[in-house]
From TrEMBL:
Topology in the lipid bilayer: Multi-pass membrane protein
GO CC term, one of those recorded: membrane
Family of the protein in this entry: Belongs to the TMEM86 family.
Name of the protein this chain belongs to: Lysoplasmalogenase
Signal peptide annotation: none
GO molecular function: hydrolase activity
Organism annotation: Pseudomarimonas arenosa
Major subcellular location class: membrane
InterPro entries: TMEM86B-like (IPR012506)
């Protein structure tokens, strides 16, 4: 049941965040990927008639978990994490394509372009030169993923597509906070806001798989 998974995911996320703020690195290292893995387990066990969609979403979640690991490793593994999440967003983008044609409605893509452009403009002076092209590609993939999710919801207007659309928007918010906190002006609550919006995004996208409230 989603409620049971919500409890364990919330508990795991709380422990991961506590590990960060209490400087208990081992706690953060265990429960950060564990939280995303729990979400992936839900997506794998959920009852659905859209098996192709389920498989691609699951791949995206596993790639996200890999990105989680890269971003918390000692040293500079940011680019590896960026590539992992880029591939995850490409996966989500193709999953949403399974539910509706590409660019079925233009306005979500224009909307997310208007959101993404100022984010890139603000970040650009702060980015190391080697990261500028990867970040630009990443932002394009992220915005396209969120826009396609919204376009699918606008076409179908049902609960599952609404969950995915809100999840896509939450992902944009999460990554905007992460980028600001990492490159522009770190703030104390930045990590908390980033992780909460990130796991909300992943959970909502995972929930968009299920055509039943029960799981196998």
């Amino acid at each position: 049941m989603p409620l049971v998974y919500t409890f364990w995911i919330t508990l795991s996320a709380t422990l991961a965040i506590a590990g960060h703020y209490l400087a208990l690195d081992w706690l953060h290292w265990i429960f950060k990927p564990a939280t995303t893995l729990l979400i992936a387990v839900w997506a794998w066990r959920a009852q659905t008639v859209e098996r192709g969609y389920q498989r691609v979403i699951l791949i995206g979640l596993l790639l996200s978990c890999l990105g989680d690991v890269f971003l918390m490793l000692p040293g500079d593994w940011f680019l590896h994490g960026l590539v992992s999440f880029l591939l995850a967003h490409v996966g989500y983008l193709f999953a949403f394509r399974l539910r509706a044609p590409w660019v079925g409605h233009l306005w979500p893509f224009l909307l997310y372009a208007l959101i993404a452009a100022p984010i890139v403009w603000i970040l650009w002076p702060y980015l190391p030169s080697l990261l500028r092209a990867p970040v630009l590609l990443y932002v394009a993939a992220l915005a396209a993923m969120a826009a396609q999710a919204t376009a699918v919801w606008w076409r179908r207007r049902d609960r599952l597509t609404a969950l995915a659309a809100i999840g896509g928007a939450s992902f944009v918010l999460s990554d905007a906070i992460l980028a600001w906190n990492r490159f522009v002006d770190p703030f104390e609550a930045g990590r908390l806001a980033n992780l909460l919006s990130y796991w909300l995004a992943q959970w909502l996208i995972a929930l968009s798989v299920a055509t039943s409230v029960r799981s196998r």
